[in-house]
Amino acid sequence: MEKIKALRWETGTIIPDSLAQKFVHVDQVLNLCQREVQLFHQYDQLLTDYMTDFELDLSALRAFQDNLETQSASVHCGLVVNHQCLLRNKRCLIAYVYHRMEKIKALRWETGTIIPDSLAQNLCQREVQLFHQYDQLLTDYMTDFELDLSADLKPPKDLYVEVRVLRDCGERSSDLTAHSQHFLRRVVVEQLIRQGLLEQIKR
Fold first, then answer.
1. Whose CA, among 4, 52, 104, 201, lies 20 to 30 Å from 165?
2. How far apart are CA 134 and CA 114, in angstroms?
3. Class for domain 160-200, per CATH?
4. Are 112 and 195 in contact (CB under 8 A)?
5. 142 in the Ramachandran plot: left (φ > 0), alpha (ψ -120 to 50) or beta?
6. Pairing between strand 198-200 and 181-185?
7. So where are the chain's domains?
């Protein structure tokens, strides 16, 4: 459960590169919980075998049930504890998966249509599909209303900004090579700044 306890991130920007390592692969958490559940099932099987060994007839079974609290309190307690632990794991997993889903949706607003390389390796296939499906829904909605919901609510003071290229932007623009500086329209570079490929130079 240590992976789940590590979810208490700051409620601000969505998972910067410095925190990317905390965005662990969901399969790691699921595997940990699965191993714990297997141990619970093995213990339950031992308890079941213990109960079966009695081979009691009906009258003896009723007498056993009447004296369960005194004769087999440890067995009864073990079953209850195991059951509650399984329910706890279920609640934790549901909360963990929901938390990741909300972070992935917020990632679309923070970085645009492309998943940063620092986070892509920590997402499973279904989470990548969720990101692209949410992106498609958002794109279709903005297209229908001809409205860019990802734009700043306050109009920028300057239409052009000076930026420095931190990493090569690849096929997006052959001019944007690492360590070069450019004076470009804000609307063109805004998403690249959010993705950590460019940084704005403030004078």
1. 104
2. 12
3. alpha beta
4. yes
5. alpha
6. unpaired
7. 2-145, 160-200
Structure-token pair, residue 165 = 């290229």
pLDDT tens track for 13-57:
334 444 344 455 667 777 777 777 777 677 667 666 655 555 444
Tokens 């306890």, located at residue: 5
For 120-161, the pLDDT digits (tens) are 888 888 899 999 999 999 989 988 888 878 776 677 777 888
Closest CA to 101 of 139, 125, 131: 131
3-state SS track over the chain: CHHHHCCCCCCCCCCCHHHHHHCCCHHHHHHHHHHHHHHHHHHHHHHHHHHHCCCCCHHHHHHHHHCHHHHCHHHHHHHHHHHHHHHHHHHHHHHHHHHHHHHHHHHHHHHCCCCCHHHHCCCCHHHHHHHHHHHHHHHHHHHHHCCCCCCCCCCCCCCEEEEEECCCCHHHCCCCCCCCEEEEEHHHHHHHHHCCCEEECCC
Q: How far apart, in whole angstroms, are the C-alpha atoms of residue 168 and residue 180?
A: 10
10 Å Cβ neighbour count for 195? 19
Burial of 192 (0-12, 13-18, 19+ CB in 10 A): buried
9-26 core/surface letters (b: 16 or more CB in 10 A; e: else): eeeeebbeeeeeeebeeb
> Cβ distance 95 to 3 under 8 Å?
no
